[in-house]
Amino acid sequence: MTLEIISYTGTTLDFSINVPNVDTTATFTFDIFSQLSNTAAQVFDPLASFPLTLVTTNARYTEFTISTAPYQTFGDQHGNGMYNYVVKENGGVIDSGSLKLIFSPGGGTGTQAYISNNEGRQAIVYYDPAY
């Protein structure tokens, strides 16, 4: 399904999903799972299940808010990558999909610059027959 980020203020993250008319009295959670290990991602402290606050729901979409204030290091993690997400209503899945997280700072890539010893692009000739 589609998850659209509406805004991120540093303390709250607002998003919407294409799920109409959810139960307004239900309890909602947002879970993320690493695609690398297929286990609950330990990205935002040891918590992978976020409680959601329902903002609005109608015949087209539902909008939620996640309070990131309890997670002081939310934007400082080095967990860039692809994740699977699941939105649950009273424990039952109502939406799922893929999510790409990019953090600032994202951390190093672990690559080293390659410096060639042949910057003139000179080819080495092993055999040159005289015709």
Terminal CA distance: 67 Å
Low-confidence stretches: none
The CATH C-level name is Mainly Beta
Proportion of helical residues: under 10%
What string gives the helices and strands in order?
A: EEEEEEE
Question: What can you see in these coordinates?
Answer:
The structure is a single chain. The chain is mainly β and 131 residues long. It has one domain (3-101): Sandwich (Immunoglobulin-like), CATH 2.60.40. The chain is 0% helix and 40% strand. The chain has strands at 3-8, 12-17, 28-34, 49-57, 62-67, 81-89, 92-101. The protein has a 7-stranded antiparallel beta sheet, with no helix packed on it. The termini are far apart. The mean pLDDT is 78.
Descriptive terms for the model:
131 residues, mainly beta, 7 strands, 40% strand, seven-stranded antiparallel β-sheet, Immunoglobulin-like, elongated
How are the SSEs ordered, and which strands pair?
Blueprint: E1 3-8, E2 12-17, E3 28-34, E4 49-57, E5 62-67, E6 81-89, E7 92-101
Antiparallel strand pairs: 1-2, 2-5, 3-4, 3-6, 4-5, 6-7
Structure summarized in a few sentences:
The chain is an all-beta fold and 131 residues long.
